[in-house]
Structure formats: C-alpha cells, structure tokens
Fold this sequence. Notes:
The protein has a single domain (about 1-135), classed as Tetracycline Repressor, domain 2 (Orthogonal Bundle). The protein is about 70% helix and about 0% strand. It is an all-alpha fold. It has helices at about 1-5, 10-30, 30-35, 45-70, 80-95, 105-120, 130-135. It has 7 helices and no strands. The radius of gyration is 15 Å and the shape is globular.
Amino acid sequence: MNRIANEDGPTAIEKIISVFVFKSTFRTNRYSLMQYIHEDKNAHLHLKFERRLPTMTIEPLTKIIKQGITEGVFKTKYPMEAAQAFTGISAMLLQGIYHTDTNNKDIDNKFRATFDFLEKILCADKDTLIDEYKRKGGKQH
Length: 141
C-alpha cells in the first residue's frame, strides 16, 4: 500500500482502486493464509492481524486521499478519518467473502455498497470508484 501511495503518475482514484484490488487479493491469493488465521485455534493471530492491519493502512490511504483533495476529486475535510472509515467499512462489508462463491449475488451487493459508501465518505461524484474499478478490468461480481 505504501508503494501504491507513493507512486508517481496514477491519479488518486486509480490509487484507491489499486488499494481496493490489493486488499481484495487476500480473498484469492492468500486463501490459505486467511483460512488459517480464521481457524478457532488461531484466534490470537486473528486478533493481532485485525489490530495491526488498520494502523498499517491509515497512513498510505490518508496520503492518497489528500492527493485526491488536491486533484479536486475528493472533497472530504477529514482525510485521516476518511482513511479510517475506508478501512473499517471495507473490512466489515467484505468480511468473510473469501468463503463465498465469486458468482454469489451477495458479493455483488457488498462491492456496490462498499464503493457507494466510500464515495460518500470521500465526497466523490457518484459511481466514480465503481466506474474506475470496471475500467481497470475489475469484475462487477
């Protein structure tokens, strides 16, 4: 995420989508890791993971959001809090999707809701994020 945040060239919207795609790869590329962490016997690892991940993501997300404010695509007055909300909302809404069939209609609803809520938090134009996600080849689930 730091690499994405510090990259020259991509717009803030492109970076937000890259972060979202990166976070979503844990569903497929890290399946065994996520499955292992979520086993009851590994509750302590799950707790550590959930505590540490947000603190590691807030700084790069804040940087991206500030870039978007400078570019005029995000209008939030609270970039750090928006980054915290991004992390919390995507974690809550997308929780457990690695156990779900990718063609499941619930996943489509979760992705749409996540993008919708994030646009509102960032004060971005409607469908800005979902349109970029689709343009980048993201599945609409």
